[in-house]
């Protein structure tokens, strides 16, 4: 399973969230429109699923282990009806409708996720340096944890986090004491939430997309990114038909050697699937680059840099494991005319016998926003 590492600013917040088994990100006011960081946070929530792990980060230390759980069919919800609209209603109108209420600022806590200790949240946090040193080759996203509310880590990185927590606390596992683990009353609190949740609280992307739609285009690439992630996670038929089904999906995944965070290349959408029936064996990888308007030749070249990065870092030389998509409203003539020459990759597979292979697995996808269904529609262009 994947993992989420959430940045908090106080121990009191840590104890509060663990006690109730609920977390909600505090956002800045939207002022009538969603900004990129709002849409990015929504995209982070969009791929959450029951069984994923959750950790908290305060003052260099990571606290765990938690697990997202299913309540009324999901592990994430709108904190109040119409929370996806970029409006700022008075607290007095929402106070009784809030699923999670920390006071007047909760009108800017738009989305919540629910979790339980798994097996416990240990009171002794682990220093970031100790975590990174415990399995250096595996940690990628944790090294890029900077200026964000939380990050998502893949299955391998998540397992490395679980490993160090369990090793550090193996003497506690069989007989935990109150001074060693945080108290959680999540069962009672989740029961109260379950009674309050109606269809108006179900997590969806409709108003996020509608708020930045310009006819059948979207005015923000991050909204396009969030929409694709949500529709893939919900297995929307047209989206699955174009991109396929994936066991792990994330966004803004680093794709360059380690350097100052602000200068790192990041893949818009990255993911992978497992061989069916074998959850430890990865089968294929996906990378998607998004352009809200017209994609040009340089966008294909950028996407191919990501393909080459995945070949080296994840697929170990095997291009056949990689599926690449460039999504845009339209494509320039130079992009179309030079596509084949730019994307072709020749590689060798096997040893005895060696097989000479050619990869041309990048597809150009046109998108349109459909106001009637509040979905993004896709079609294969090339």
UniProtKB/TrEMBL annotation:
Gene3D superfamilies: 3.40.1350.10
Record protein name field: Uncharacterized protein
Entry's Gene Ontology molecular function annotations: nucleic acid binding
Highest taxon, organism lineage: Bacteria
Organism whose genome encodes this protein: Carboxydocella sporoproducens DSM 16521
């Amino acid at each position: 399973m994947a993992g989420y590492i959430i940045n908090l600013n106080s121990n009191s917040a840590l104890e509060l969230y663990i006690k109730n088994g609920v977390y909600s990100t505090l956002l800045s006011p939207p002022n009538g429109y969603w900004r990129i960081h709002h849409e990015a946070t929504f995209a982070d929530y969009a791929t959450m699923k029951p069984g994923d792990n959750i950790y908290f980060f305060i003052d260099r230390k990571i606290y765990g282990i938690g697990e997202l759980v299913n309540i009324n069919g999901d592990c994430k919800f709108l904190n109040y009806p119409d929370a996806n609209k970029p409006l700022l209603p008075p607290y007095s109108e929402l106070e009784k409708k809030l699923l999670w209420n920390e006071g007047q600022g909760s009108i800017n806590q738009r989305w919540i996720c629910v979790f339980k200790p798994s097996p416990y949240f240990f009171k002794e946090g682990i220093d970031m340096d100790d975590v990174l040193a415990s399995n250096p080759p595996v940690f990628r996203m944790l090294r890029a944890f900077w200026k964000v509310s939380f990050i998502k880590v893949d299955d391998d990185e998540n397992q490395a986090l679980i490993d160090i927590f369990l090793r550090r606390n193996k003497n506690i596992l069989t007989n935990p004491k109150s001074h060693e683990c945080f108290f959680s009353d999540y069962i009672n609190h989740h029961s109260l939430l379950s009674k309050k949740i109606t269809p108006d609280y179900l997590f969806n992307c409709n108003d996020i997309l509608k708020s930045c739609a310009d006819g059948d285009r979207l005015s923000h690439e991050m909204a396009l990114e969030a929409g694709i992630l949500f529709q893939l996670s919900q297995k929307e038929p047209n989206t699955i038909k174009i991109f396929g089904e994936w066991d792990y999906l994330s966004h803004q995944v680093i794709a360059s050697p380690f350097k100052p965070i602000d200068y790192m290349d990041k893949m818009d959408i990255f993911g992978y699937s497992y061989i069916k029936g074998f959850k430890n064996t990865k089968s294929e990888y996906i990378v998607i680059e998004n352009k809200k308007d017209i994609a040009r030749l340089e966008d294909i070249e950028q996407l191919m840099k990501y393909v080459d990065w995945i070949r080296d870092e994840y697929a170990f030389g095997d291009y056949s494991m990689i599926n690449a998509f460039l999504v845009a409203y339209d494509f320039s003539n130079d992009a179309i005319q030079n596509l084949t020459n730019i994307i072709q990759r020749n590689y060798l597979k096997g040893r005895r016998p060696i097989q000479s292979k050619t990869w041309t697995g990048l597809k150009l996808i046109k998108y349109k926003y459909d106001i009637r269904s509040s979905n993004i529609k896709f079609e294969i262009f090339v």
